[in-house]
Structure formats: structure tokens, C-alpha cells
Amino acid sequence: MGEYHHLRDWSDLEPNTRLLNMARIDPSESDAINMQMSTLHTNQERVKYILSVMRDDAVLLEPPGQTLKSLHYSELYQRTATQLFSDTNISRRLDRTIDAYTKSIVFALPQSQTLALGYANRSAALFTAGLYQDCLRDIERALLLPYPDNLKSKLYARQARCWMALRGDTNNYIDEISKALQNTAEHLDQLPESDATSLRMVIKILNDPEKMIPSKAVFKKWQAVDHMPRLADESTELKGVSSALKVQYNQQFGRHVIATRDIKSGEVIAVMKPYANYLLPEKRLTHCDYCLEQTWSSVPCDICCQVVYCNEDCKTKACNEYHDIECKAARRLIAQFMPYTTIFAMRLAIMAIKEAGSIRNLRKKVKALDKWKDPRTLGFTKGVLEMNYDSIYPSFQHCDKVSAKDHVHKALLTSFILIALAVKSDLFGKRFSSIREFYKDNDVTFIGGLLLKHHQIILTNMHP
Predict the structure, then answer these.
(1) Which residue from 124, 102, 135 is spatially nearest to 286, judged by alpha carbons?
(2) What would the pLDDT profile of 5-53 be if each residue is shown by its tens digit?
(3) CATH number of the domain within which 111 lies
(4) What is the DSSP string of 167-217?
(5) Residue 52 lies in a domain
(6) Domain limits at 261?
(7) Number of other CB atoms surrounding residue 73 within 10 Å
């Protein structure tokens, strides 16, 4: 018999051995599994086979180390941020301070006072950084939550100073400034006398607001979208691609793009929005998980601690398109040290199901794509290569060139995605009590086949 390893030992193992241990499959079976995998012809068959050799229901149990909302960690990061913020060289530590306050917000329970304090305290750091619009957003969020009345005067005073900074030499924001100063005065008697520094500052603002205009210039964020290049003439077949290019197919190169005319130096030939995207792990708390924009005044997911959004609009769109299903499943996969590409493969599957309306409809769509006769227009929608799942699915057509060992590796990763989706969501319409039920379920193995294909697509089509 082979040797099973504890979780702490997995990082030193060869990838397939590590995954076999996680799947409770004896590593001594590896050669036999590779041999059998080499005889299979479809991705659905490959995933079904791996699921069939996973026999221990322990794989359905919750893995340790999942990151959950936590008052303890929220307060811990809040204290860390406050210590950084009180440093005399705060200008050198503002990024770290804002990052620590963001972590406090991410770990805070929804609608809690801890969350309100996190927003309010981060607004102070954003104010110091000259990020006045971001500061105002955090102030508004704090005031919509159970923020302590005895601290509101300070918050309204900061709000007034933000509006004054944004006003500059214009007559803008007069009503906003007046309202903020009025609220500051109304809550002044609740500010404790023991907080003498804050009390003096608030009184100064009320007595002579013009002298309390921040001296730091407004920090202006680079708006990349506003400076996006434009196509002179879009192709009738390729969305976001210049008419200087067209799709062609031949036996030598397969489907490819050729020029229809001479292309000038510096000419824009494509401006395309990706069908799907996924943040690198190191950017998950500094950039919006939906639009990928850098954000300093982010809002967290109400359930998980994996993502932030630049505003409620992006948060709602992400939830509608994928995150409502992905959320808890991703948390489980992260605790199992799965690569981020695994979660991206899962996101693609969720988006495909939602786009189609159901797993049943998606199966019909995939069957139609598999039967498509013209390889040049494979995935086109009404004569156009749109940014939809139809255009993504055909992106990898060389499964026969992938080694059996690599198929095993990706099929094992896929199996853990399926388990996460089955135990953490209602995607398959029921909950599974045994791992043996998985390979017998046609919906599970169908989605498993797509997930395996997504791993193959990501390998050759994702740009980090």
C-alpha cells in the first residue's frame, strides 16, 4: 500500500501525488490511473473516471483553515491599522494603513458596528491621502450602519472638509458643505470631553470652516477607460477587432487571423473586453473583483473574505453573474490550496450556465457547437464572433495532444471543484451524501467535462 500524507506535508509532494492524497486515492494506483486515462476520448469520460476511483466520503468533509468573517480578526486588523496611522511617518505608510483597514472591513460581520468603525477609520486614512471622493464614500457607508453617536460629530466634520477640498475655488458643493456642518454641530454635544484633540478640531471647523480646508491637493485617479484607444473601423465578423483583420481557416494553421490590407505602424487593431476575468491572488483586496479597477474605498462580499468591489453596483453584477454560486465553493478550494486558475475555471462554468439559463440548455448549446460543420465560423452568433460562451468553448481543440498525466492532474482539480459546488451550492439541484453519487450523475459529469476543458482553455488563452 502507498503512504497517505497529512495536509502540512502536501506542499513538498509532486502535484498529482498531492491531489491523489487529497482525493483519498492510494498514490500507488497512479500508473494504473494514467494508463486508463490514456484510453479515454472525451473530457466527460475523463472526469467520470476520476470520480469513480474516489471512494472515500471523507473528501466531502469541510477542509480546515477556511477564512470566515470574524470579529476577532476584524478588530485585530483595525488595531494594526490604527497603530500604523499614528506613526509620525504616516505618509510612508498610508498604503499599508488603508490595506489593514480594508482587511478589517472584509472580516467584519455585515451590518455590524465593527464594519461601521472600519469604514469610518479608513475614511480618515483616505482623507490624509487626499482621496476625498473615496473618503466621502466610506463616510456615507459608516453613517448607514450602527456608527456610535458620540463619534458622528468628527465624521461629519471630516465630510465637510472633503466637500470643501473638492470645491476648490468654485461655488460647487455649497449645500453639501452646509448640511455636513449642520450635522457636525447637531452631534457636537455627544463628543466626549475626554477626546480633547477631536473636540478642538471640530470647534475650529464650526467657528471658521474656511481655515480648515485641507492643504493637500485632491488626488486624481488615472481613468484608464477614458483613454482607451478607439477602432477606426470595426470588423463585421469580429467584435472589437479592426476591419483590417479577418478570420481564416486551413489545415496547416487551423483557425487564425490574417490582414486584409497593409496595417500602419501604431494603428489600433483590437480593443476587446474579456468574456471573463479573475484577479491574481495578491490583488484581491486592492482591486475590484468585477471590473478589476484599483480601489481604495472598497466594499466586501457579505459572506466571504476573498473579494472586494469598488462599489455596490459591481458587487451586485458579480453576484448576478457568478459570485452567488462561486462564493462558498471558492472559500473551500482556497482552503485546499488550489491554484487560482481552478477558481477561474469554475467561474467560467457558472457564467456559462447562467448565460444559457440552465444546465440542460447549456448541454444543448454544447452539443450544437460540437456538431458545427464550418470550423472557420465555429462559435459565431448570427455571423459574428461575440463575447459569449459560444466563442470561448471552441478555444481549445487539441485534447488528443494532452498527456494522460496532465489529464489526470486537471481531472483531479476538476473533481474538487465539483465537490465544492455540490456541497456549497445548489447548482446541481440537490445535495450529495456520498462521493459515489457523483460519477453516476449526468449533470455533474457534464459540467465536469466543461471544467476540464476550461483548464485546457485557460492554459493557452489566459493572459495574467
Answers:
(1) 102
(2) 344 444 556 888 999 999 999 999 999 999 999 999 999 999 999 999 9
(3) 1.25.40.10
(4) HTTSSTTHHHHHHHHHHHHHTGGGS-TT-HHHHHHHHHHHH-GGGGS-SSP
(5) no
(6) 229-270
(7) 17
